[in-house]
Amino acid sequence: MSRVYNFSAGPSMLPEAVLKRAASEMLDYNGSGQSVMEMSHRSKVFEEIINGCESLLREILNIPDNYKVLFLQGGASSQFAMIPMNLMKKHHKADFVITGQWAKKAYSEAQKYGECNVVASSADKTFSYIPKLDSSTFSKDADYFYICMNNTIYGTHYSELPDTGDIPLVADISSCILSEPVDVSKFGLLFAGAQKNMGPAGLTVVIVREDLIQGVDEKVPTMFDYAIHAKNDSMYNTPPCYAIYICKLVLEWIKNDIGGIDKMYALNQKKAKLLYDFLDQSKLFKGTVEPDSRSLMNVPFVTGDEDLDKKFIKESVEAGFVNLKGHRTVGGMRASIYNAMPIEGVEKLIEFMKKFEAENQ
Ligand code: PMP
Question: Which residues are recorded as modified (N6-(pyridoxal phosphate)lysine) (predicted)?
Fold first, then answer.
């Protein structure tokens, strides 16, 4: 068996220990005589899985008791509509910072439900930085303030959170969840698709302050009402059972194998520094993001020559490094180095880049 180093932006690598454990439990989970894929979501054995998953997430992210954790389907993209449906209640208004395609999509979807203001954007420089925010430009009566914390395509990340006062801060943390500690109490709502740092695609996690999900308009469809999912402990209908099980294994890996979120963060900082330090001194490769906006998870870079970029991507695949091609809207390369990418993967990539640089002076 030979596994590649997979730099995909998502779905992406899972820890090998998690895959091995899932394989060993595939036919008979914990003496139940069934796979997790086959069991009733109402069974005691599955209840233990979903409850265990939630309590581990609460413990690792230190989620306060007045926040609900929801395990939903529909991908992070469904949240672009669910958030305004549930949160645009008082003034039907929200503020947005446009830092890339995902923030833009959230903004476009929310426009169907109310007035949306763009308080800042980094579109002028292909979203290569997080714009400086001036709180005097924020709407005083917004129902929420929306950011995309880590911009998967462009490789940017907020180094400082906007101070929105009493206005609930809502953040898409799809590509940085569990990569760093996060002070949940500073947010009204956090959400993430699972397929980068939590498990397989099909699971979306929403962490939301309890008081924000009350009194939703009765026209909101049942399946899009956070309060319904909260009241039913994410079991209003069949949840994405297998994805929740893998997520629980990933959380156990972070807690027991890595040693918790602070250790995970330190490891991610170390991996990213190796790559950024290499890019900063390279005569061929160049990082595309302004230094104070750099993401620890997604690292885009270019050679400045499209043909050379193509050659690099082709040769990287032959050398066992896959999915380094940049997003189709940006070009160049992007190395996504999520939690499950081992440090050796980054070291080997750098070695390969050095060799490529020497051969292509
Ligand atoms: N937000 C971010 C930051 C993303 O990276 C992605 C997908 N890569 C999405 C939202 C959309 O997620 P999904 O495909 O689960 O709808």
Answer: 196
Q: Is the CB of 77 under 6 A from ligand 1?
A: yes
**Residues in the annotated binding site for L-glutamate:** 42
Q: What is the mean pLDDT of residues 73-96?
A: 98
What residue ranges define each of the domains in the chain, with the CATH number in brackets? Answer: 17-257 (3.40.640.10), 260-359 (3.90.1150.10)
- Token pair for residue 107? 């903004």
265 φ/ψ sector (left φ>0, alpha ψ -120 to 50, else beta): alpha
Which of 192, 184, 147, 187 is CA-nearest to residue 167?
187
Confirm whether 233 is a catalytic residue.
no
Q: Given the CA of residue 9, which atom of ligand 1 is nearest to it?
A: 8
Distance CA 39, CA 33 (A): 10
Question: In the annotation, is 102 catalytic?
Answer: yes
Whole-angstrom distance, CA of residue 280 vs CA of residue 70? 41
Mean predicted lDDT score pLDDT of the chain: 97
- Other CB atoms within 10 Å distance of the CB of residue 244: 26
Q: pLDDT tens-digit profile of 140-183?
A: 999 999 999 999 999 999 999 999 999 999 999 999 999 999 99
CB-neighbour burial class of residue 188 (10 A; exposed 0-12, middle 13-18, buried 19+):
buried
Alpha carbons within 13 A on the beta-carbon side of 294: 25
- The span from the first CA to the last CA of the chain, in angstroms, equals 35
Test site for ligand 1: of 7, 146, 151, 152, most ligand atoms within 8 A of the Cβ: 152
pTM above threshold 0.90: yes
| Ligand 1 atom showing the smallest separation from residue 80 Cα | 10
Residue of 359, 358, 335, 332 whose CA lies nearest to 347: 335
